[in-house]
Amino acid sequence: MKTTPDLTGAAWRKSSYSDGGDDNCVEVADGLVTTIPVRDSKNPAGPALFFPTGVWSAFIRTVKAGRLGSTSN
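Below the sequence we write its predicted structure tokens.
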């Protein structure tokens, strides 16, 4: 049976890659061992996405290496 981690009291932080404005921020909660929760800062009571720590680490390495395409509109 899968269970959703209890995020009550989680310490959320805004991504350093967010633009700094209130309209476009992703928040991440640290401190869980096997999963990384991610949410939209505009909807803190809304759902969070959960990523396995290894997958999240690979994503962060890719972002830091600049290997993602441009997202300009």
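The first helix runs from residue 53 to 64.
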